[in-house]
Amino acid sequence: MSQEAYLVENLVKIYPKNNVRANDGISLDIRWGEILGLLGPNGAGKTTLVKQLVGLLKPTEGRIWLDGHDVVKNPDIVPHYVAYQGQKMPLLVDITPREAIYYTGRLRGLSPRAARVQTDEFIERLGLHDFARRPMAKLSGGQQRLAHIAMTLVGNRPILILDEPTSGLDPEHRRLVWDLLLESQKQKGTTILLITHNVLEAEQVVERVGIVDHGRLLALDYVGVLKQQVDQRIRLEVTAKPGHEKALADALHSFESVRRINDLRFRIYLQKSDVSHAVRHILSDAIMGWINDYRVVPPTLEDVYFHFGGKEVSVES
Ligand code: ADP
After folding, report:
1. Distance from the CA of 23 to the center of ligand 1, in angstroms?
2. 241 CA to middle of ligand 1, Å?
């Protein structure tokens, strides 16, 4: 086994059609057994990068090594190592989730019995029972997504590459998916590359994170290490009662450093010595009636993301 699962050297991808430089000199490694997140806004170049990793696109320049194999020269090697879940779901129409999962397992080398056992397991774990025997074309987007996740997991590939795997799923099913992925990593040592534009969700699972924008890798390190590089001021988060957000926004205006996170949520950056004064202020009679909740929060992956120049990212889970 080579030292890294993947090694990417100076990857450049220019789409000739529109001359867009979608990847502009990206170098990174993916280590065996880790969960690496790639974060970035829409159009950053994430999907272009992973399509090259799995051999679906040829780089304009640069090298990609998968367990020491040259992916550009030998893309056929990829399916032996990698289960790839792209953003677009495959066009399966008449086939049922049960069949799709089973045959994917068989294609990945499982015996008929092992494929049946795993198919049953994923149907059970992802709650697919009610529609496992219905044609894919008759399922909702979320149901198709879950079937697709089972198709990615079946057959125990050592590397999973997942492009926005939970988009379109409700919070309960998102949780199920993350639990399954984490379990696979912990119990089988699966290496996972997760592409997302959802910072909050990524924070729950990734160990190392790469931040991509305009085709470049702006940072790549352990989340904890990157957090140490961001603004170390204390963050006081205040949530407005619905209907009072405008009044609260005006009241918080007096703080030098306040950022609106979403409609209801505000974050105030404070020196340690100013925290008690700030808390007293927001709990004053004038303001208290407008707030639902306040709390002191440590730096988050979202702070890291903004620190390294990220933007237009989803901060909602
Ligand atoms: P992300 O996955 O981060 O949203 P993409 O890799 O899909 O970003 O896109 C990166 C850039 O490349 C964007 O400017 C996008 O418009 C462009 N792009 C993506 N796919 C193609 C394509 N097939 N042909 C031309 N341009 C493309």
Report:
1. 9
2. 40
Q: Which residues fall within 8 angstroms of residue 133, CB to CB, at 6 or more apart? A: 96, 97, 98
Q: pLDDT tens digits, residue range 191-229? A: 999 998 777 778 888 999 999 999 999 999 998 888 888
**Ligand 1 proximity of 166 Cβ (cutoff 6 Å):** no
Expressed as residue numbers, the domain containing 256 is: 234-298
Which protein residue's CA is at the shortest distance from atom 25 of ligand 1?
Answer: 15
For residue 119 the two structure tokens come to: 């198919």
Closest CA to 68 of 99, 32, 93: 32
Give the CATH number, domain containing residue 287: 3.30.70.100
User: Does the C-beta of 210 come closer than 6 Å to ligand 1?
Assistant: no
CA–centroid distance, residue 171 to ligand 1 (Å): 28
In a domain, 310, yes or no: no
| pLDDT tens figures, 124-160 | 999 999 999 999 999 998 999 999 999 999 999 999 9
Question: How many domains is the chain partitioned into structurally?
Answer: 2
Instruction: Say yes or no to pLDDT of 167 above 80.
Output: yes
